[in-house]
Amino acid sequence: HINRAQNMNFLVAASYLEIYMEELRDLLKPNSTTSLELRERDGGVVVPNLHSVLCKSVDDMLNVMHQGNKNRTVGFTNMNEHSSRSHAIFLIKIEMCEAGSTLVKVGKLNLIDLAGSERQSKTGATAERLKEASKINRALSSLGNVISALAEKSPHIPYRDSKLTRLLQDSLGGNSKTIMIANIGPSEYNYNETLTTLRYAHRAKAIENKPVKNEDPQDTKLREYQKEIAELRKLISERQKREKSVHREKKSKKRATVARVKRESNLLQSDEKSDSEVEEDDEDNDCEKENEQDFNELDAKAKEELMKEREATALLAAKLQELEGALVKGGKNILDTYTERQFELEKKLSEIAERKKREIEMQQQLELQEESTMEIRETFTSLQQEVELKTRKLKKCYAKCMALKQELQDTRDEHNRDRRELEMTQNELIKELKRLLLIIDNFVPAEVKSRLYTQAKYDDEAEEWFLNGNMMLSSHQVVSRPVADPSRRRPMSEYALHMIK
Question: Where's it mainly located (predicted)?
Answer without folding.
Answer: cytoplasm
